[in-house]
Amino acid sequence: MAEQSPPETDRSGRDKRLGLLIWYRISRIYNQSLKETGRHLKQWSISPAQFDALAQIGAHGRLSQQQLADKLFVTKGNITQLLSKLEESGLVKREQQWKTKYISLTEAGKELFDGAVPEQEWFQASQFDALDREEKKQLLALLKKIQH
Amino acid sequence: MAEQSPPETDRSGRDKRLGLLIWYRISRIYNQSLKETGRHLKQWSISPAQFDALAQIGAHGRLSQQQLADKLFVTKGNITQLLSKLEESGLVKREQQWKTKYISLTEAGKELFDGAVPEQEWFQASQFDALDREEKKQLLALLKKIQH
DNA sequence: TAACATCAGTTTAATCCTAAACTGATAAAA
DNA sequence: TTTTATCAGTTTAGGATTAAACTGATGTTA
Questions:
Q1: pLDDT 10s digits, B44-81
Q2: Which of A128, B72, B100, B147 has the most neighbouring CB atoms within 10 Å?
């Protein structure tokens, strides 16, 4: 009986090891990529978080702060502080309507958006150029599956 | 001539989009996983960063601060602060030898290590259980390739 | 209309992290 | 032996982020 059943504990042990290795890889890739992104963005004097906000606002036009928070998967408290700095730098403006504040890009913000976003996105994407098109598709499919 | 050459600009455009989608996925998976990890670790009143440090120290025994920093891919300044808290909590101790400080777990640290590490690693790994063994291997191989 | 609930945004205190300047000890070279 | 370089760790200032408490306006209901 025992000989015929698959080595369950062993298999789950190996699976645990695999899962852990994946986690550490992802963690390193993410943090490395973030660091390089930060370096690359220095030419426009903005941070990765600021870039993400600008890209969303630029792409969607008028957004409330809560909507922006949802798109970026961060808290509204974070958005308040992020926007304070972007407003100070003259890149975005806030307009209150009823109890909602709508955010949009200023002229300077649009200029930065047009200049920085395409190049930065190209840079971001190029970090995966060790993979060919087929491999990228595979990777994306696997990543999607993780989030069921 | 034109008809026979592959649509280069188009292809690289699609590749850029794929690369970007991968980046956003990885970013979301990482941040989600980190948040859930934090929630799970609350039962031992430690943070993900503290857990990682304890796991390394527990696994490797005596380590200098610089060695620990290298293993965790963070700065030594960060380690100084991380260890201050772990020392305060009585989980690790530092012993100076020559100009190097060697870190090791206290009894309380070892106890926490034995209790928390296996369970936490299991939890961590289980976040990828939507993938079967073969898919995990594939994913890991692709991730490795990214870092060439 | 007065009391209450809801909801957007703000504030506060905390954690994690970095870069850069600093300290102090060892080692090497003049 | 004095000077200089190197190297481990610390400190400091600042950025990004969160959770939780707070503010103030709008809407609902008794």
A1: 999 999 999 999 999 998 999 999 999 999 999 999 99
A2: A128
Q: How near does any CA of chain B get to the CA of A60, in Å? A: 17
Interface of A with B (CB under 8 A): 11, 14-23, 25-33, 73, 121-122, 124-131, 133, 135-140, 142-148
Question: Per-residue pLDDT for chain A (148 aa), expressed as one digit of tens each?
Answer: 444 444 444 556 777 899 999 999 999 999 999 999 999 999 999 999 999 999 999 999 899 999 999 999 999 999 999 999 999 999 999 998 877 899 999 999 999 999 999 999 999 999 999 999 999 999 999 999 998 7
Question: Quick one: what percent of chain B has pLDDT higher than 70?
Answer: 92
Nearest by Cα to A18 from B53, B99, B126, B31:
B126
- Rounded CA-CA distance A72/A125 in Å is 18
In angstroms, how far is C7 C1' from A103 CA?
A: 18
What order do you get walking across the sheet with B63-64 strand by strand?
B63-64, B100-105, B92-97
d(CA B5, CA B1): 7
Nearest to A73 among B26, B31, B146 (CB): B31
Q: Which two tokens stand for residue A61?
A: 């036009």
**Binary contact (B131, A142; C-beta < 8 A):** yes
The partner residue sitting opposite A26, judged by closest CB among B19, B30, B125, is: B30
Sign for the CA dihedral angle at A52, A57, A60, A63 comes to positive
The structural domains of chain B, ordered by start, are 47-146 (1.10.10.10)
Amino acid letter, residue B13:
G
